[in-house]
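Thread: quick sanity check before group meeting

JM: Hey all, I'm pulling together slides for Thursday and realized we never actually wrote out the predicted structure for the chain we discussed last week. Dropping the sequence here so it's in one place. If anyone has concerns about the input, flag it before I start.
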Amino acid sequence: MFGINKKNLKDSHQARWLMTDILMLGLLLVNLLLIIFDSMYETMFIRQALVAVIPNFEDIYQPIHENFLLIDLGFVAIFLTEFLIRWFFAVKNKDFLRWYFFPFIHWYDLVGCIPLGSTRIFRFLRVISIFYRLHKYKIIDLNQYRLIQVLKFYYQALVEELSDRIIIKVLSDLQDELKGGTPILDEISNKILASRKQVLIKWASSVLNHAGNSIESELEQENLRGHIEQSVAKAIHNNSNISSLNLVPVLGGKVEELLQEMVSDIVIQTVINLLKDINSDQVQQAFDHGLTAATQEELILTDEVFEIVDDCLELIKTHVERQKWKEAL
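JM (edit): ok, ran it. Output follows.
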């Protein structure tokens, strides 16, 4: 029997719904057993076997069998009433973003209430949903039962197999796309980028101008200056001709420091002017050059890069194809 965690039940504030779930679970089990029995009763073999054991059984059960739809409708009325009550409280407690989300999420409850043989099977989902809800609030722990562990294992194995097949299919299609000359890259360049060239040009030039104005500000310039001064000092230190200035008495060190400051100022101002003075025409030239046909050497290099990507995708497929659920066995 399922053990109930009373502490989690109290913390979840689901006590009243637990009683309702237990009641509904009992009614569902009775209803499903009646449906199964009534379906079996329609076969001649079962009917004769029951009559052989209980001679007057057919006289007793035949009226129930003939009016079984009305009996089932009684169960349906109870299930629908409980469904509407839950819907009302879900709307009252604002459990969903919209009031009409509840029947879509619990669609199996509505479909299972249709009194047809093909739809009654969905009432089994109602039983599963009740156990799942109790497990979600940790009122009962389904993981401690061997049957649940087995079902969970094979469910995960099924999901892994399906997801692996989908991932491998996607990667294989991507490899075929790369081997076929990557027409999608040409379509992106010609249909998307080219049609929005002016927008991209204005955006790029404005971003560069904004970067120049930001660097020109005192705070950003100080940050940049510190980085440039370190780079310049390192370069000067590694330059034998300039570092020889330290050999000059008194003035050598001063000249080197002054040279560092001058180079740093020149580099900073050059970067600022380069970014601030760039215009849309210059960006357009760079953009047009980027869309022109590549040289033969660039095409060869591109093919080699695609081969590297293809090898990486093949390695990923090899790892995806590993059936981890078999390793767990």
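AS: nice. Residues 6-142 form one domain. Residues 146-179 form the longest helix (34 residues).
JM: adding both to the slides.
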